[in-house]
Amino acid sequence: MNIGSTLYRKAMTAVAANRAVKRLTLRYGRKLARRFVASDHLQGALREVAALNRQGISATMDALGEGIGSLEEARAYRDEYLKLLDAIADSGVRANVSLKPTQMGLALDAEACIAHIREIAVRARQYGNFVRIDMEDSPYTQATIDMTVRLHRAGLTNVGTVLQAYLKRTVGDARDLIEAGVPLRLVKGAYREPAAIAFERKADVLASFRSIVKLHLDRGAYTAIASHDDAIVGWTKQYARQNGIAKDRFEFQMLYGLRMSEQARLAKEGYRVRCYVPYGTMWYPYYTRRLAEKPGNLWLVAKHLLR
Asked: Which amino acids does the record list as binding FAD (predicted)?
């Protein structure tokens, strides 16, 4: 990231952590958050996914929640995901699910967390569906990778995770997880991390991202490329063409509310596209991370407010 982007992210992260800002945003900002959050409720999110499907876009659905305070909350989120998988099967929409390890209790009890995710993965497997374990900030990186590999070794190969290109360790993690057959989503990274473990220059993050995508494509591993950056999307399309890599060997993933016309255009071009569709009332952490990613996202919300 360049210096301006780094300062913007740090400033937005600090503002979002302010209790008064959070209280006011939760009270008055729900309509603004709708830019990035599909609905407060499951049925509303399913309607949004059905509309995306009609444009040739698949979805991964996320019942928002993280940083829980008790295992009772974790069990409630587990039950929500079981309900979500049932609803996807009943409705017939093209969607899988994404969840956060801390939402399932990782920070409280690692064994309880993996038990909750195992139940969700078993239910998903019954429907021929897939579970993506999202990657959170660096204190949970290794635990998330270990948990995903453990589930795979137990036969739950319908589980994958996420790697963040801005972490300096990620190329090595990618090699190991490709060898283990773990499906990966590749992202730049949205958390604030120290320079000792994360690249800060935008050029370094892009170089890391490209190298990980190349590693996947060259080894024939199905590749989920989660980026809105034209430098990544364009490079991936060109690399695939030049190396005879079919369009069904990778997919582009983008966020609900961002570059929706670009998502539709890619789908019309014959690329696989998956939209990350979050829903629920616990939207504040997700919403503030979207605003902190870049000034353009804040401008989208400001334009909505002015309208």
From this structure: 135, 164, 188-190, 202, 227-228
